[in-house]
Amino acid sequence: MKTHNGVPRDEAWFEAFFKTHHAKIRAYALRRDPQAADDIVAQVFETAWRHRDRLPDHELPWLYRTASNHLLHSYRDSTRHMAREARFEAVEFSSATTNPTDDIADRLDQVELVESVLAEMSESDAELLKLWAWEQLEIFEIAHVVDCSVATVRVRLHRARKRCEILLNQKHAHTRAAELSEQGM
Known about the structure:
Layout: E1 3-4, E2 7-8, H1 11-32, H2 37-50, H3 59-77, H4 80-90, H5 102-120, H6 123-134, H7 139-146, H8 150-182
Antiparallel strand pairs: 1-2
Helix pairs in contact: 1-2, 1-3, 2-3, 3-7, 5-8, 6-8, 7-8
């Protein structure tokens, strides 16, 4: 039986481990590739089971890194990423509705804006921002996921946030100019 620090890593341990981390890893995978999310999650936990005797004490960053690796393999084997981006660009939301779903439409518009900005950024910048904002990881956890030093993550995250802010401001200015143009101003 495999153990870690005297604790048996058996089926009971794995069941508790799975229950603790499944939702976060699934959310991570869903945000990156909704169509392959369940497959990615299954692969991540299969990998965790096979390597259970070598899992670090801070398991979650290891799981995110493993999920990231499985996603990269998935992207290399197919054009899912490009198809997903095309679907996001094809979605149009009507801003002229007058029903109670206006708030939902506004939120979806914001999601579309963020997705379009992230799509314009480098993959590494976008991934850092997603790990920080969506997964709410600490800097040291992000460093583990992307396999670099904490200092490097701090600098790269700072720069990515600045680039994101510039792109958001440009898109906002462009959208505002288009609205004014439509109003004849």
